[in-house]
Amino acid sequence: MSERGAVAVVGAGTMGRGIAQVAAAAGYRVLLYDPVPEAIQAALDRIRGSLSRAAERGRLAEPVAAVLARVEPRPGLEELAEAPLAVEAVPERLELKQEVFRTLAERNRGMLLATNTSTLPVTAIARPVPGPERVVGLHFFNPPTRMPLVEVVPGLFTSEATVDAALAFARSLGKEPVVVRDTPGFLVNRVARPFYGEALVLAGDGVPFETVDRVLRGLGFPMGPFELMDLIGLDVNLAATRSVWEQSFFADRYRPHRLQVERVTAGWLGQKTGRGFYPYPRPAPPSQAAPVPLARRAHLVGEGPVARALAARLAPVPAEEAEAIVDARVALDRKGYPPEAPPGRPVYTLIWGHSASTARPRYPQAGEVVGFSLVPPLEDGSPVELAAPEERSVPPEAPGFFAALGLSPVVLPDQPGGVGFRILAMLINEAYSALREGVADAATLDRAMELGTRYPRGPLAWAEGLGLPYLLAGLKGLFSELGEDRYRPDPLLVRRAAVGAFGGEGV
Question: Is residue 469 part of a domain?
Fold first, then answer.
């Protein structure tokens, strides 16, 4: 492979060494600097090991030694001046990043300066730097050797030529770059905040970590939020949360949670310390007896996405023949016991926008009332969450009913929205907020979330699949019952639901 020229990498930690490896594998001479000499040697050892594993899998086009030879340790920042491009991956401290760029800019007046910051404003980093028009965000995702996305973030000073050069460099590495606005958390880290934040709120209200993770994996997410925070490092995730929160003028929806703060305080940082939300090595979860399937002739009420998904599995019967009632309407004020149904039948009511407890009074003629929540599209084994009203328990017939439909019941404490819908709705609401603010266009937003987080689909596409009026009705219900501003539907979502193709009948 022919060499492409030189690129300087400042910082030999996890991100720096990953960027250095990717650049060297793409044919660049990499001038690697870290103020701690031992860090450079450790980085070279880790790069060698990573390249060896890639070679064993047939994913390396050259011998390991040839790639590694292009990584050249340098003893000081002044030794990087020959490179036309520098990428800094130093700790997330504004003054440190500014000083690095000031030093480099003074030694090479034409050098492009790319910051791998994940949360700090690119404009703030560039302001004291000579020639701030050459400073741009180049945000790689961890691990850089595997994650295909790079966010290219122009600040207010950044020139179009600098953006073009950053895009070309990212593509030369085999990455897929997206241009996003310089706002707190940029795009992916901002839209992903509810994945962690709402999971922590639910856990703080009594939902077990394991239950949250199980439900989210069941929806197609590669890992649950607590597993993922343990992998990332609770300290790293908390620092990102605090940065977005502070830059967003302490908006409630970004607020850090005490469950994470107390673990960081205790030194329980996740896998790297042997304990986070889970202990490591992590013991296998205890096996649970599968519910006995219980086929019931059920009457289905509702026209939305959940009703349609269940109708394909349920073969609904008229109300007067029903042994059970399934109310798949979202809005609480639309719910009620079908007058044609015999009294005393159990009711399974969708809790996207409320709790089972608040729904119970809507069915005075019913027997047991159990809340359920699930998120289409459904597959065999998809999770269905079940919750009983306060001071009641979920009767064994309820898991059996849903098991007979090919679903996997998960019993949890009564919470408005359950787990899966509530976290997904908050992700979608944040995505609409970012879209409204012009952080990225819709196609870029969804593509970035799929590449940068490995979500099963982009949040905007997921919203359209669920139907915006139904999603909006759920968010409005959460906002009404929980009473916190974090659940307020974004104005763009409200407008899109009003003029969209979905009529919303039977919400």
Answer: no
Q: Nearest Cα to 300, choosing from 355, 372, 219?
A: 372
Q: Are residues 229 and 138 in the same domain?
A: no
Span 305-331, average pLDDT? 96
Q: What is the pTM of this model?
A: 0.94
Active site residue 299: no
| Residues sharing a CB contact under 8 Å with residue 356, sequence separation 6 or more, in sequence order | 349, 369, 370, 371, 387, 388, 389, 414
> Tell me, what CATH number does 358's domain have?
3.40.50.720
**139, 257, 299, 354: which one is catalytic?**
139
Residue 502 confidence (pLDDT): 40
Single-letter amino acid, residue 24: A
Please state, for a pLDDT cut of 70, what percent of the chain lies above it. Answer: 98
Q: How much is the average pLDDT of 261-270?
A: 98
Provide the number of structural domains found in the chain: 3
d(CA 318, CA 7): 70
As a whole number, the mean pLDDT across the chain is 95
Residues 318 and 373 reside in one and the same domain: yes
- Three-class SS of 331-367: CHHHCCCCCCCCCCCCEEEECCCCCHHHHHHHCCCCC
